[in-house]
């Protein structure tokens, strides 16, 4: 069970990563949350806006940075039957992503560090280079998780 969580967690981070939440949000809602103009695809501007919303949500104390505690609290939790090994693995994954995003090593992620860490994932998903992430590109990257692009388990 936890391996699925970690896989899903990596996907969300790598591309929510496109925003810590962009792809997870796009998959879960059939693009509607990130696709603010509802044209069926996510532009770079929409991805950046989704990243900004995700950062603001993570920054629970409103100081303009995200510390490791805030970052951890903003990630998916574990199932009720998680083992101690599952808990340790979750902590390791989250700590690794936090360290990756904290480019200057000050123990906080700034909005610019957050965006810089996530920006490459937009380009990876935009496989045809048209400046948009389509439903088809999401499906190709993450597999078809339901007809509406939503994640199903």
UniProtKB/TrEMBL annotation:
<keyword id="KW-0677">Repeat</keyword>
<keyword id="KW-0479">Metal-binding</keyword>
<protein>
    <submittedName>
        <fullName>Putative signal transduction protein with EFhand domain</fullName>
    </submittedName>
</protein>
<dbReference type="Pfam" id="PF13499">
    <property type="entry name" value="EF-hand_7"/>
</dbReference>
<keyword id="KW-0732">Signal</keyword>
<feature type="region of interest" description="Disordered">
    <location>
        <begin position="58"/>
        <end position="88"/>
    </location>
</feature>
<feature type="domain" description="EF-hand">
    <location>
        <begin position="46"/>
        <end position="81"/>
    </location>
</feature>
<dbReference type="InterPro" id="IPR018247">
    <property type="entry name" value="EF_Hand_1_Ca_BS"/>
</dbReference>
<dbReference type="Pfam" id="PF13202">
    <property type="entry name" value="EF-hand_5"/>
</dbReference>
<feature type="signal peptide">
    <location>
        <begin position="1"/>
        <end position="28"/>
    </location>
</feature>
<dbReference type="GO" id="GO:0017156">
    <property type="term" value="P:calcium-ion regulated exocytosis"/>
</dbReference>
<feature type="domain" description="EF-hand">
    <location>
        <begin position="125"/>
        <end position="148"/>
    </location>
</feature>
<dbReference type="InterPro" id="IPR011992">
    <property type="entry name" value="EF-hand-dom_pair"/>
</dbReference>
<dbReference type="GO" id="GO:0005509">
    <property type="term" value="F:calcium ion binding"/>
</dbReference>
<dbReference type="InterPro" id="IPR002048">
    <property type="entry name" value="EF_hand_dom"/>
</dbReference>
<feature type="domain" description="EF-hand">
    <location>
        <begin position="89"/>
        <end position="124"/>
    </location>
</feature>
């Amino acid at each position: 069970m936890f391996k699925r969580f970690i896989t899903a967690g990596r996907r969300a981070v790598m591309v929510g990563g496109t925003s810590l939440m962009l792809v997870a949000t796009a998959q879960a809602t059939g693009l509607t949350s990130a696709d603010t103009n509802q044209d069926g695809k996510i532009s770079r501007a929409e991805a950046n806006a989704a990243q900004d919303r995700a950062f603001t949500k993570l920054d629970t104390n409103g100081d303009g940075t995200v510390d490791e505690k805030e970052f951890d609290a903003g990630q998916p939790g574990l199932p009720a039957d998680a083992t101690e090994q599952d808990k340790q693995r979750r902590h390791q994954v989250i700590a690794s992503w936090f360290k990756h995003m904290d480019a200057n090593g000050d123990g906080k992620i700034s909005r610019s560090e957050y965006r810089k860490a996530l920006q490459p994932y937009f380009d990876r998903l935009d496989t045809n280079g048209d400046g948009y992430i389509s439903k088809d590109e999401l499906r190709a990257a993450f597999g078809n998780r339901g007809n509406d692009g939503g994640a199903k388990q």
